[in-house]
Amino acid sequence: MMPISSPSADRESAFLAPYAMRSDLSAGRRYSEQTHPYRSAFQRDRDRITHCAAFRRLSHKTQVFTGDSGDYHRTRLTHTLEVASIARTMARALRLNEDLVESLALVHDIGHPPFGHAGEDVLNERLADCGGFNHNAQALRIVEQLEIRYPDFPGLNLSHEVLEGQRRRAKSLPPGTQGQPLLEVQVVDAADSIAYDAHDADDALELGLLTVGDLNQLALWREATDRVSERYGDLNGLPLRTAVIRQLIDTEVSCLIEVAESRLSEFAIQSVEDVRNSSALLTAPGELAAKKRELQAFLFAEVYRHPDVLKQRATSTAELGQLFDHYLRRPERLPDFYQQIGNEEGRARAAADFVASHTDRSAREAFAGL
Ligand code: MG
Asked: How far is the CA of 79 from the centre of ligand 1 (A)?
């Protein structure tokens, strides 16, 4: 192995906090590789993720609303980019490893099948007798097995720390793994939640599923609106909405950074080891957590269970279920790569991997061609 001395390593030594995960201290990759002359291990992970096919396909996958609802709302890709953006802000403020944070954020939803959680539920039902289907676990299958891009190894051969973060999401850590996630992992979890609090409210307003008056019942929204009014006076319509959405993100991000800084100092966190042995450092404090729960419960009832969304969901699940059943009955119609998976891991898993790799659009086309 080449000695680690690169612009990235020097930069990390100069800027990162002692409790940040440094790339030169990574536990490495499953298949060993030469270090890169000027990209850190986590920069390479980020690049491998953004260049893979499953990442590009996120642009045509549902976050909450399918493409039938227009083109204002978030897709799985733009959600992912918002998470990465928020997470990097928090990481820089706390002097964490932004490259690792970016990798974790960009990969976190890469395992989603078409049609969001509706698609996931159908595949999970169909695979009930053979391990089920979960988008977090599917992300690991994609990056460890299904993406074929390198002659030397299957998957993307990502660094241990990126895989560990995703294994925590999938609840599939090796037995005996102890301690808290790295702070970089905690930041991405927090950013994911902040992103959807804000963008699901924004998308639902744009689509007319909610009104600002509905959201004013909720403490988090009302307080953000009050802050906006203090600064700008009386705003209405789109200027009010965009200002409140910005304020919501800013309130949550600022609160979490402040809480993390005070816990880091209170518990005298000086190393990655200390992070592992501490309690969670980046969770929303009680008052904010309660307000987030109130907002999320409201969005669940009023948006995710809105009759229009449920109608889209019913159509999507019926189509995706039939597509899966078709490939289960006719495995010879699967591409060779997936037939091979069928030989090794069973037809159901192969059909699920293939169907899950589709975008909303290509799943619709495949269904129409049955
Ligand atoms: Mg997400």
From this structure: 7
